C-alpha cells in the first residue's frame, strides 16, 4: 500500500497522534473510509506513515467524538450511516443552533456582525466543484477551501451565544452531519441556491429578526435532510 504524506499544519507544531487524528477524521468525514470499515491499527499506521501508538491515540480521540465506533474485543470501526441517524443529527442541530443563534442575536455586537458579513462574503466567493462533474475513475474534486469557509460561516452565526458548551456541541453535530452531506453532495448542491440560502440567514440575523433567522437556518438543514432522504429511499419498481 502506498503511504500518504500528511500535510504540514502551519498554525502549530503537532504531535504524531494529532496529525493522524486530523488525517483520519478527514478521510472518515469525506467517505474515503467507508461506513462499517474495520480500522486495523497496523493498516492505519501504514496508511498514514505513523507509529501504532499515535494511531491508538487518534482512534480513541475520534471514538470520544463519535466519529469512530469502538467495540470490546472487536476493535475500531467507521460508524454506519442511516436515514434515522441523519434525521436525529439534523433535528438536534436545529434545536441547538436555533437556540445558539437566538442568543447570539440578543447579545449582538458590531464585531460579531462584522465577522458574519466577512464569513458570508468569503463563502459566497468560493467556488464549489460538484461531484457530478467528476470524470469516471477520477478522484472527487477538492472542495477543502469551501468546506472550511462553510464551517466558519456557520460558526460565526452562533459565536456570540455566550456558551462554550453549546458551541462545542454545535461543532460536533456539524462534523457528524458533514459525513452525510458528502454522500448527498452530487444531488444536493446543483439543485439548490446555497448562496441565496446563506444570504437570507445573514439578512434576518443582521436585522435582529430572531424568528426569521432561526427559521431560515433550520430550513436549510431540513432541506439537506429532505434531499438525502430522497437519495437513500429505495426506488420502487414500476411494472409494465
Automatic annotation (TrEMBL):
Keywords: DNA-binding, Plasmid, Transcription, Transcription regulation
Keyword Transcription regulation recorded: yes
A molecular function GO annotation: DNA binding
InterPro entries on file: GntR_C, TF_FadR/GntR_C, Tscrpt_reg_HTH_GntR, WH-like_DNA-bd_sf, WH_DNA-bd_sf
HTH gntR-type domain boundaries: 14-81
Pfam families given in the database record: FCD, GntR
SMART domains, A to Z: FCD (SM00895), HTH_GNTR (SM00345)
UniProt superkingdom: Bacteria
Protein's recorded name: Putative transcriptional regulator, putative GntR family protein
